[in-house]
Write a structure and sequence with these properties.
alpha/beta; single chain
């Protein structure tokens, strides 16, 4: 039997922390603000008090004023969360840098008391699709190859399943696409540095990108300057006795067509 190999690390943690530290001089945290607003709106809809809150984030200043009593911890591989202590855990826009995404979800679930709520927000697979395409085409044209530049983002179709693997009940994953207008690709890259979201991939080429690649990417970037940020929100509950359960397929007692007030479509009727 061969020796076990350690999987390659996704994130250079030291580089990520250094980027976040440099970004604090003039940060661009509007996406974190959007997530914080979204979380607060969702909690109002839950209409239930939460008294023991933990927040996992790389930007504690966003959350400290909104949840002044919360236990705020950094998004490290091993989260500083006590098992079974909290009734609400929020993981705020940092899971895309996680070495083990499912492991982070499991740690959050274990930190919850029975029937405690988890809300996680992360960048989805459509994030920065325009910049990815422009950089890839530019690098191939100039150098003849590709190097890791933007962290891989999970697709929403996979994330609900990851919540289930982590042991959450009633898992839900939904997404919002946020188009942000920039003057050009260079303006976007500058903003990414101000977000602390530069290239911190462990496998990145650790030299400056050639000016010819940047110039070519600038030329290839869409003329409207739009950058897409897809934010996926995950929710799940720590299992508990007497908890609401999803209906079994085919067990509904009312038809969707009746609820919507429209005729029911019979697929067989289209064959005649």
């Amino acid at each position: 039997m061969g020796a076990m190999t350690t999987p390659p690390r996704l994130c250079d943690r030291a580089a990520l922390l250094d980027q976040r530290k440099r970004a604090t001089a003039d940060p661009a945290l509007f996406l974190h603000e959007w997530v914080a607003d979204e979380v607060q709106e969702r909690l109002q809809e839950v209409n239930r008090p939460f008294t023991d809150v933990a927040i996992v984030t790389g930007w504690p200043q966003i959350w400290a004023t909104r949840f002044p009593e919360a236990h705020i911890v950094p998004d490290e591989d091993a989260l500083a969360l006590e098992v079974g202590r909290f009734d609400l855990v929020i993981h705020a826009l940092a899971l895309h840098w996680a070495q083990d995404l499912v492991g982070q979800l499991v740690q959050c679930r274990r930190a919850l008391r029975p029937d405690g709520l988890f809300i996680g927000a992360l960048f989805g697979g459509q994030t920065l699709q325009e910049l990815r395409a422009a950089l890839a085409q530019a690098e191939v044209a100039v150098t003849g190859g590709l190097s890791p530049r933007i962290a891989p983002m999970a697709e929403i179709r996979d994330l609900g399943g990851l919540l289930q693997r982590a042991g959450f009940a009633l898992p839900v994953a939904d997404s919002a696409s946020l188009p942000v207008e920039y003057k050009d690709a260079l303006h976007l890259m500058h903003d990414l540095r101000a977000m602390g979201e530069g290239n911190a991939l462990d496998g990145r080429i650790k030299t400056f990108t050639r000016r010819a690649v940047i110039n070519q990417a600038q030329a290839l970037y869409p003329a409207d300057g739009i950058a897409t940020f897809e934010i996926v929100t995950l929710t799940g509950w720590a299992p508990a006795e007497g908890q609401q359960q999803p209906l079994r397929p085919g067990s509904a007692k009312a038809r969707l067509a009746d609820a919507l007030g429209v005729p029911e479509f019979d697929p067989d009727s289209s064959k005649s």
